[in-house]
Amino acid sequence: MLEVKQVHVAFKNQLILKNASFTVEDSMIACLVAPNGRGKTALLNVICGLVPSKTGGIKCNGISLRSKRRAFLHQLFYVQSTEDLFGNLTVKDHLRYVKKMWQSTIDITKVLTRVELTNSQNKQIQQLSLDKKQQVLLAMAIVSDAPVLLMDEPLNGLDVEATRKFEEIFVELRGQGKTIVFASHQLDSIERVSDKLLFLKDQQILTVENMGQDVEMQYGEMYLT
Ligand SMILES: Nc1ncnc2c1ncn2[C@@H]1O[C@H](COP(=O)(O)OP(=O)(O)OP(=O)(O)O)[C@@H](O)[C@H]1O
Ligand SMILES: [Mg+2]
User: Fold this and answer.
1) Which residue, by CA, sits nearest to atom 2 of ligand 1?
2) Shared domain check, 138 and 42
3) N or C: which end of the chain has fewer CB within 10 A?
């Protein structure tokens, strides 16, 4: 479970979030939704402690980022983007590293099969296309076995088939009890997999349950009128 309470984020004179709060329970997928530049990435960076929030607090399974940073970080997995992968290391190197760092017992071979990376496991990251790199990030999240998984635009650069595969895996992970938060502009995917929509608007987070409504219409009402 992830609890974000009254976070305040500003860069120089630009206020991004003011007293913003939300909760995402176990076995739940929440999607951060907003137009470019509203602060989705900034919020993910705040949640994992890369960007400080002056006020409020963040907890993963009851463990506070402020007072128990190390234990808190063990509860979550987040790598902001494929740009953060090590170009000259292989796919398998990355998975082994994550397995060790998160002290996980997940079988890397099974994850490679599930994410369809078996044939690329010994390739260097710099040899991979964007969709494969996105698969590596997803595989790393699975291998970490962390209860809370954060992802920033994990569906970027994926074709329809790959997008559907990612959706299937998100749903499987939810079934295993994971708390998943991801930012995306793919409103159709969000409509299919999310339990909660987290709209960033007016420096606040508006939480809306996904009751099967038309997310594109809701987005239009929120941002395009
Ligand atoms: N480290 C930083 N220093 C200064 N300004 C920043 C920093 N990170 C983000 N910003 C600014 O904060 C605002 C929100 O940026 P952010 O990248 O979080 O938006 P986003 O919702 O993720 O957008 P996108 O959909 O394009 O990914 C932008 O105006 C950006 O320029
Ligand atoms: Mg972003």
Assistant:
1) 11
2) no
3) C
